[in-house]
Amino acid sequence: MSADESPDRHARAADEHPRPARSRWERWGPVALFLPLALALSGLWEQTLAPFVRRDDWPYLLPAHTPGAADVLLKVREEGRWLNYAWWWAVGQHSTPMAAALTFGAAYLLLVVGLWRVVRPRGWVASTLLGLALAVSPLFVKLLYWPGTLSVGVVVAAAGIWLLPSALRSRGTTVGWVVLFTALSVPSYPPLGALLLLAAVFAMRERPWRAVLVLLGGFLVGFALGVAAIYVINWLAFREVGPEIAAWRHPNPLRSLHDLRVNGGRYARQLVTLVSDLGVSAAVGVLAWVVALVDRRVRPAALRLAAGFAVVAGIECTQTIVTGVTTAERGSLWAWLALVLPAALLSAGSSWSRRAGAACLAVLCVLGLHAWRGDVGTHQETRRSYDAIVTEALRRSGGEGGRPVAFYQDPSQRATSRGRITVGTLQMMLYDSGHVVSRWCRPAECARAVARAEDGPVLDLGGAVVIVVPKPPRLL
Length: 476
Hints:
The structure is a single chain. By secondary structure, the chain is mainly α. A hairpin with a 4-residue loop joins strand 3 and strand 4. It has helices at 7-16, 24-28, 31-42, 44-49, 72-79, 82-90, 97-119, 124-135, 147-167, 171-185, 190-203, 209-238, 257-278, 280-294, 299-323, 334-345, 351-397, 411-414, 417-434, 443-451; strands spanning 405-408, 439-440, 458-460, 465-468. The protein has a 4-stranded mixed sheet with strand order 2-1-4-3, sandwiched between helices.
């Protein structure tokens, strides 16, 4: 296929050999299968109706100057997520955890269906398996516990994916689309912009290489514009050039060859951890890639898709090389699509490839559902235990205006990040449930709490109710 061929020529060729028209049920029926399955089996409904909220998401769900909550503007100063700040100002501070979780969950389902709409193959089995595999990304499940912070990013991504088919009608609108939504993803949650790019590359898999390269170039332009916008706004707000990266992220700015080696090693270890976390799923994805590259019918599309993944991973690598900051596996959302999309490509290959693609999608569905059930189940178990502690403490103290509620925590845990996250989560839940501002126990109270630790996590000491903070959960 010549690089000079235009999308119009492909459209004319399709008109000469049109595919049989499909009814609306044939086109959308698989959604009625995979969406209820995803909701019922993954545990998303449970997290949506009774959300567990991580400590550093609470500031995006509470008004400014809430006792014990971090300053949202300070978080923006460190991260540059100005779109998240705008969402908090307009929506988040007036919301509730459940409302935020419902917004996140609804936007996520719209994003999944939008991705499926762009990627879907022919055939009910392959189409249903693809939708379920897209819905149960074991990386995306790790984002559910920050609904206040991340809802706006998912809303933007959902809007972008539903506008993609219209944007693909001309080269100009395609470039405008990728620049706009990539730039919007950077000050909200950049990994979501990568998902939109990969969906667009998949949709353009039969277009000339020139069109795909223009799309990838537009993504880089949009990313640069998003970063530039953050720098400009940070300068106007704080008179600082760029975000002030928090010390806990262990930044290591690139200033020498030694920094290059150190940061390169960090990214290499990040990739090893990512592959290790994906486990068997990674091996299934590799198999799908091998089959796609061997099958001559699919190989051209697979190579275009590989170019998209190279750009996305290259951006991620560059950020670590330049700043020294690594990305948690939940930030590498592209990695799950790297396993699912090549399997989806196989539906257009030989009969053997189609069978291999369906088998890969089926295995990825099972593994993804297992990961979701485990992750959501662990968080829900923790939420229930924390809810019981908070409810008992409020009952014994009399709630707002009653006796003070204090915390005792083992000094060895209090000095750790995991320990601080644990007590901070309980403090925020206590305030959200009863508007009770807690404090640390005084020396005499702490000594009595230690002596009575076996009596349970909530102790009535007369002058105060003391919560003995449990050990940090495994999920941290």
